[in-house]
Amino acid sequence: MEQDTAARAGEKAAEESLEGMPGFVRSWRQVYLFLLLFLVLLVVVFSWFSEVWR
Amino acid sequence: MSWLDWTVLALTQLLIVVYGVWKSRQDRDMESYLRSRTMSWFTVGLSIMATQASAITFLSAPGLAYEEGMRFVQFYFGLPIAMVILSAFAVPLYYRLNVYTAYEFLEKRFDVKTRTLAAVLFLTQRGLAAGFTIFAPSLILSSLLGWNIYYTNLVIGGIVIIYTVTGGTRAVARTQKTQMAIILAGMFLAAWYVVKGLPEEVGMEGALTLAGKLGRLETIDWTFDLNNRYTIWSGLLGGTFLMLSYFGTDQSQVQRYLGGQSIAQSRIGLLFNGLLKIPMQFAILFVGALVFAFYLFQAPPVFFNKVVAEQTRQDVVVGDKYIAAESAFAEAINARKQAALNVLQQPEDAAAVEVLREKQAAVDGLRKEAKSLIKQGNPAADTNDINYIFLTYVFDFLPAGLVGLIISVIFSASMSSTSSELQALASTTVVDVYKRLWKPSASEQECYQVSRWATVGWGVYAIIFAMFANRLGTLIEAVNILGSLVYGTILGIFMVAFLFKQVGAKAVFISALLSEALILALFLYSDVPFLWYNVIGCVVVVGASLVGTKLRFW
After folding, report:
1. Of the candidates B502, B465, B538, B429, which has an alpha carbon nearest to the alpha carbon of residue B110?
2. Cα–Cα distance for residue pair B91/A15, rounded to 1 Å
3. Could you tell me how many CB contacts below 8 A there are between chain A and chain B?
4. Of the candidates B77, B209, B267, which has its C-beta nearest A39's C-beta?
5. Which residue from A29, B220, B236, B525 lies 20 to 30 Å from B532 (Cα-Cα)?
């Protein structure tokens, strides 16, 4: 029972680990939000790019 | 090709293979051969990108931008969304279950029947697709350089088999890292040379002005039109589903991120792909738009596939008409060049821009007429020359050495995709079929040996398919249809597994069989476009599973 609980806690810690990320990143949710905002930024930049040279 | 080109090609390919094999020379067991959880996020990310980007990506994309503008970039808008979803849900799940293949998860969630069905569907489709990954660049290189297509297939396929069998997953990932470096360097140098080759009075700003006025820098299409293949809506909606299916259920991609040192490293690798893929695709398309601007001042051929063009010139029925069309095309190109120079002198003059657009329409019309003559001369001829545009520019205008590097880019892109495919086919054969159904008592060492033989077997199968592919006519369509016959069903099974806990094994298995029967019936007896099979297959599996479970049919 205790072993199961410890194993599950280990799994959860591994899933939440931010190993390899810069120090200012606090959670994966922040990273996902950043990527989705980056997508929005790309759409805006591409629209501007097409408009400027049209 | 000059001796310098041959030297660059041979040295870069040798470097890639020797480096990959040497760095992974100590991997001699099943774990390191098929999964090797030792890779950093950077290696995982580059490996994912290299697997997705086949040779056709680097040949087609610039040609597409040349012909239609840069709207193709929207096709990738669903990718970052799919990366977030997979990173949040699929990666931790695959790690928790400690699986080698995506299909093992289906047995844990449903039963062995469902796992085997998905594995067999994958093996059928991906085995043929691997042959096509070898064949497509071979066809184009043999057509443009006069190489023997059989030897080209053998060289590309043979090299991939050697380093994949020798080094396994780590060799594949390490070679992919080097291959990506060569691909990016080659494309960057090609772009630099296009700009350098522009007339002095044009320059970069002039090239962008002209390409922009003629619609080659259009990227975003906001219209909601189901008949328009590339819009922001089809990219965001259709693209997300397609990328979820490809990255979440196709073993050739799942195996890439399961090679990460930890969940965090695999996640960052996936997200890194989500971050870089769209800018990279934009850059490749941008090269095509620059090539278009370059050809405003250098006469392009009316049709870029030189072999087909020459066959049409020799045709007794349409030969003379084709030669006349070429002369008319040359005159139209001269008129367009004058109009382009006028626009550069007065970019804000709407009348000058309108004249340029009219001249471009005349050029497009003559290209269409030439394609129609080709079709009249030989109804079986492929009149799509988009894949030949970029390479025609490379062979006609790039200096010796750089041509060899670009051929190396094409070899690298083809081999990086093929190696992942062979690895995925081998792991699915061994883990989901051999060890699960044939010989459950097989030891790790035995599985390792069988994995290596499976890689050789699938490699030989892919090369044989590539050899015969030349006789199959419209091959791209054939392979896409084959993929669409199974992808929808596989995605449906995984969606039920992830999203609907109440659905059991029997329900999903029967629904998957129903879906495949329906897709086959549609294929044999209806005119439904094959791209819709993906959506229909997925919806039928999910819908029938839910309805069957709710009404207690199964």
Report:
1. B502
2. 9
3. 75
4. B77
5. B220
CB within 8 Å: A43 and B77: yes
Q: Which amino acid is at B48?
A: I
Residue of B nearest to A44 (CA): B220
B40 interaction partners in chain A (CB closer than 8 Å): 20
Q: How far is B47 from chain A (nearest CA, A)?
A: 18
Give yes or no for a contact between B284 and B61, defined as CB atoms under 8 angstroms apart: yes
Distance from CA of A20 to the nearest CA of B (A): 7
- CB-based burial label for B274 (10 Å; 0-12, 13-18, 19+): buried
Cα–Cα distance, B95 to B265 (Å, whole number): 12
Q: Which residue of A has its CA nearest to B275?
A: A35
The nearest CA of chain A is from the CA of B498 a distance in Å of: 17
Partner-chain residue, chosen from A14, A50, A54, that has the shortest CB–CB distance to B262:
A14
Measured CA angle at B111 (ends B109, B113), to 5 deg:
135
Is residue B312 a contact partner of residue B318, using CB atoms and an 8 Å limit? Answer: yes
B213: closest CA among B351, B402, B307, B45?
Answer: B351
Confidence of residue B461 (pLDDT cuts 50, 70, 90): very high
Question: In B364-487, which ranges are E strands?
Answer: none
Q: Are the C-beta atoms of residues B427 and B168 closer than 8 Å to each other?
A: no
User: Above 60 in pLDDT, residue B498?
Assistant: yes
Nearest CB to B219 within list A20, A31, A46? A46
Q: How many CB atoms lie within 10 A of CB A50?
A: 19
- From the CA of B332, how many Å to the nearest CA of chain A? 23
Phi, psi (deg, nearest 5) at residue B26 = -95, 0
Instruction: Give residue B470's pLDDT band: very low, low, confident or very high (50, 70, 90).
Output: low
B220 touches chain A (CB under 8 A): yes
Whole-number pLDDT of residue B284: 92
Assess whether pLDDT exceeds 80 at residue B496: yes
- What crossing angle do the helices spanning B203-213 and A28-53 adopt, rounded to 10°? 90
Closest listed residue to residue B220, CA positions, set B367, B90, B69: B69
The answer to whether B73 contacts chain A (CB < 8 Å) is yes
Of the two residues B412 and B483, the one the predictor is more confident about is: B412
Query: Which of B14-48 are b and which e, b meaning 16 or more Cβ less than 10 Å from the residue's Cβ?
Result: eebbebbbebbeebeebbbbbbbbbbbbebbbbbb
Q: What is the pTM (predicted TM-score) of this model? A: 0.87
Q: Are B57 and B287 in contact (CB under 8 A)?
A: no
Average pLDDT over residues B319-340: 93
HEC string for B257-323: HCCECCHHHHHHHHHHHHHHHHHHHHHHHHHHHHHHHHCCCCCCCCCCCHHHHHHHHHCCCCHHHHH
Q: Which chain A positions have a beta carbon within 8 Å of B221's beta carbon?
A: none
How confident is the model over B42-99, as pLDDT tens digits? 999 999 998 888 887 888 889 989 998 999 899 899 999 999 999 999 999 898 888 8
Distance from CA of B192 to the nearest CA of A (A): 20
